[in-house]
Amino acid sequence: MSLRKNLAVVVAGLLVVVVAAQPLYVVALTLFDYGHQPGGAYATMQTKDTTRFPASDPDELSAATARAARPPNANVSYDTVVRVPEGDWRTALAASGLRAAADAIVLYGDAPVPGAGNGSSAARTASTVELSGGNSAAIAARIATRGNTSDEVSPNNVVLVGNESPEWALPAAAWSAYSGDPILYVDRNGVPDATRQAIAELNATHAYVLAPPRLVGRDALSALDTEWTRVAGSTPQDHAVEIAKFRDESRDFGWGIDDRDKVGYYNTMLVNPDRPEHAVASTNLQWGKAGPVLLVHDDGTLPAITENFLWRTQSGWFSTPAEGPFNHVFVLGSLDDVSWVSQTRSDYAVEVTPYRLQGAGMSPLDALSAVWAAFSLLGATFVYTHSRHRIPEMGDWTKLVWPLFTLLLGPIGLGFYWFAYRSRETVERDGRKHVVRPYWLQAASATAMGVGFAASTMVAVAFLLTYFGMPLVVFDGPLFALGSSMVLTMAIVYVVALLVSWQVFHVPMFEESMGLDRGAATRQSLLAVVVSMTSVSVGMMTMMWVLMMLNLPMMPGDDNVLWFGVMVFSTLVGFLIAWPVNGLLVRRNVKPGGAL
Amino acid sequence: MTDQSRREFLRDLATVPALAGLGGAALSVDSNLFAGGGGEESGGPATADVDEWTATTMTTRLAGENVYETAAAYCQSVYTAINEHTRPGAVTLVNDSVLEAALPGVGMIHHPIDGAVLLTRQDELPRATRDEIERAHPEGVGMDGNVQVYLIGGERYIGESVRREVESMGMSVRRIPGDDPVRVAANVDQYVSSMHGNHEDEVIVASLDAPRRAVPIQSWNAHGGDGFLWVDGDSIPAETAEQLEARYDYAYMYLLGDEDAISSEVSRDLGAYGHVTRVPDAGDPYSISAAWAGYKDIGRNQGWWFGEWARNIGWGLADPGHNFIFANPDDWRTAIPASVESHRGKHGPMLAVRRDELPTPVENYLRKFFDPTDAAPYDRKYNHGWIAGPPETISRDVQAEVHGILEGGGPP
């Protein structure tokens, strides 16, 4: 092989390196850039879409949430103060329903009521209920039937949870506190009498069992005198998500927060499953900003199931991000209970995002780009290997063209490769083999040659400029736009791609494949490259401008796979425009259309 | 298949994936993706002060020990900087003593820069600002050579010593020059327009005779990225005229002041560059902030047979389910960096309040439109408010009142 051909092979290899780098970089970001807590001094631990109450002690935390919901002097009052014991999660959890049923704030131990110091009117007029530990089923039943106002009109639901393993029971706190549906306890082996009596006294016609079968078995539930529905997940974290999703419209039960609804304002409470007291403290927030409890792992890290739920319920804006809806996450406990990375990843997940399929996380447009990128890589791999082993008589240059072409145009590139060679006759003319192709395919093959070399160089240069920063020059006067980063980038991309495509690829290719001397090859290939590449560029750069600057609400950067999507879509448009132009070049014998 | 041809086949099969993997790996190494978290770093969010008024369900107070820390708090709330996606593009430094020179810098918050505004002294980079640049570690603005820190104004506003210190932190810096506020605003406008290859036709025109009225309104540009220029009360400076002239076709100008602040002669003369509108209730920062939050101007900006763009300026909020930045224009150094909350997260307008009072126009606006209503079973249109600065800037009573209004009395 000649020196120039070696150079062309090396450059083609580099083009593959750079063009394929972007989607793989995004994969690497996804896998290895999960997030870590930056050090340094902080002035706040509140973020744009999360609020943290950073107390771990139940007294302090319940005081903080009660105050946050009903701050003194805010003209918000409450009727009841419920004091729950710290060492007995069952009693405390059962008190959740009083939040709604008795318009209560729920406090642990001696936690101060909001505005205690300045004698706010709410603090003075509220009555106090002190709960102490004991038989959990009996206490829950007593709380449930306290001041029972069964009206025979609204559906009387009860919430049943197991009296073991608080991490499975605590998501019930949020719903009970929001709706007032009382929490009652069930044993592993049966329904305690107290629970049964409470159901009868409440005239409850339906029980929602928020526990998995291994905590509350089917046999145990057979003793119930009422209909029941089980809602449960496979882990405590999944369980919390299932409860957040569940909705029984007929009986007005459950949050029903799922991805179907893009217009709801959703709040969630992020709680450590080891801290049932934190779930109880979060019930105070149900007055004001209501929402289900979600769980992190015991060590404070964010489970995939929880994060995925936040992504699924992310809201999207139509015409301006100011329109909402806005989701909010309350984080309960210290940085050890729920880590900073859990809080900030949640913050990132729930931020309102452009409805039109962009923004944080993987949007449908991103997914399309990613699938295309996978097709591109696998397709290029296939074409490279297939051409070398199944069509060994193919020319060295076309063996470079088709993988590069497929690398950009993915399934479409693969399709044209197939058409260009599958069941095609070859004839020998002037001592060279040619493939017999219909005219449209000759034009397409000639275009592929231009796109394969020129467009891949353009995409590679554009990526390097995006990654290392595009140039920008500030001019005054009417020609200021010439200094804009996109214009300069396009100019650099055009010039570099023209030179590379011409000097590195087309001159030696024309010398070899058309039997021309250096001078003639240089002249004839310049014409071919300028005409072909300009027509590709017209389509490509127009699309890049339209998509990047006008159409997409946010310009995708090097860390977004949509960047690759924009590039391949632009290349596709460039290909379509250059196709008829290359048809002319083939007809005038400037470019070969039957190159083997 | 012989052994040799099998070897060749496998080699060819691996070629493209190997080259691709090489590229991806090179970028990942270049971006330190494999370096991990680098172990425990000192400090962290646990160092933040929390008191019982830091957060209510309806409000979040963002404040530090001094104005520099308070500006850093806004930046921390928006750019958590735990990974590539949560870092700002750049941080914009503005002078801490001349409002008129600092305010145009708010226009740099919007995309494609995507960053926060922090404060600096003319001759010294405050400790809190330096720490925050390090924590946020801007990823660089791709549309301008990966610039990480902007300096707004000439050396009169931010000295070379500050530039050298920022550069010594390994940051790539660009200065937007200008030796007077008019020039600074014009240069910011020209710089942002160069990025877009286009001047935004909608321009907010503020008066050097009444700069505080522009404080709450300029947060719109953190959200919307339109133009911002200064006029004198009774004349149009040449630099401002030049920028208006540079608009393609018409400029659409929104005046932040009544006749006392921007004379009717100036208003008439501005008409030479396009359409002039006085923003209503422009007599003081409080009334204009409420008016602007409800204001929306739509209609023709540009249109050809293949496309059309509306003017689309102003928040136009008049239903519950929105968010507001409550800021005190008397303490503008805590107010203008809070504009970043208009840009990301909950995207709301800035409402001007006094230290001890929710001004009547603001209160009326909130009470009239933002009483939260149930949208569906178990769904309400929730509001939220940012309290910008410490209780010395906005008192706890004002925060409590705001909470009560935004809460709307709670569910039955």
Number of β-strand runs of chain B: 16
The neighbouring-strand order within the major sheet of chain B is 1-16-12-13
Shape of chain A: elongated
Major sheet details of chain B: 4 strands, parallel
Radius of gyration of chain A: 34 Å
Keywords (chain A): Membrane, Transmembrane, Transmembrane helix
Protein name (chain A): DUF4396 domain-containing protein
Organism (chain A): Candidatus Halobonum tyrrellensis G22
Transmembrane segments (chain A): 397-419, 439-467, 479-505, 525-549, 561-581
Give the arrangement of secondary structure elements.
The complex is a heterodimer of chains A (596) and B (412).
Chain A: H1 3-32, E1 50-53, H2 58-69, E2 80-84, H3 89-94, H4 96-101, E3 104-108, H5 121-125, E4 127-130, H6 136-145, E5 157-162, H7 166-169, H8 172-179, E6 183-186, H9 193-202, E7 206-209, H10 218-222, E8 227-230, H11 236-245, E9 267-271, H12 276-282, E10 293-295, H13 304-312, E11 316-317, E12 328-332, H14 340-350, E13 353-354, H15 364-390, H16 396-421, E14 426-429, E15 432-435, H17 439-468, H18 485-514, H19 518-551, H20 562-587
Parallel strand pairs in A: 1-12, 2-3, 2-4, 5-6, 5-7, 7-8, 9-10, 9-12, 11-13
Antiparallel strand pairs in A: 14-15
Chain B: H1 3-30, E1 59-62, H2 67-78, E2 91-95, H3 99-102, E3 116-120, H4 127-136, E4 149-152, H5 160-168, E5 173-176, H6 181-196, E6 202-207, H7 214-224, E7 227-231, H8 238-245, E8 251-256, H9 264-270, E9 274-278, H10 285-294, E10 300-304, E11 307-310, E12 323-327, H11 332-335, H12 340-343, E13 350-352, H13 360-369, E14 374-376, E15 379-380, E16 384-388, H14 396-407
Parallel strand pairs in B: 1-16, 2-3, 2-4, 4-5, 6-7, 6-8, 8-9, 12-13, 12-16
Antiparallel strand pairs in B: 10-11, 14-15
Helix pairs in contact in B: 2-4, 6-8, 7-10, 10-13
Give structural notes.
The complex is a heterodimer of chains A (596) and B (412). Chain A has helices at residues 3-32, 58-69, 89-94, 96-101, 121-125, 136-145, 166-169, 172-179, 193-202, 218-222, 236-245, 276-282, 304-312, 340-350, 364-390, 396-421, 439-468, 485-514, 518-551, 562-587, and strands at 50-53, 80-84, 104-108, 127-130, 157-162, 183-186, 206-209, 227-230, 267-271, 293-295, 316-317, 328-332, 353-354, 426-429, 432-435. Chain A has 2 domains: 3-32 and 363-587, no CATH class; 50-350, no CATH class. In chain A, the strands form 5 sheets. In chain A, strands 1-12-9-10 form a 4-stranded parallel β-sheet, with helices on both faces. The longest helix of chain A is centred in the last third of the chain and has 34 residues, at 518-551. Chain A has 596 residues and is of the alpha/beta class. Chain A starts with a helix and ends in a 9-residue tail after the last helix. In chain A, helix 15 packs across helix 16, helix 17 crosses helix 19 and helix 18 runs antiparallel to helix 19. Chain B has 14 helices and 16 strands. Chain B has 412 residues and is α/β, with parallel strands linked by helices. Chain B has a 4-stranded parallel β-sheet with strand order 1-16-12-13. In chain B, strands 3-2-4-5 form a 4-stranded parallel β-sheet. The longest helix of chain B is centred in the first third of the chain and has 28 residues, at 3-30. The interface between A and B is large, with 115 and 124 residues.
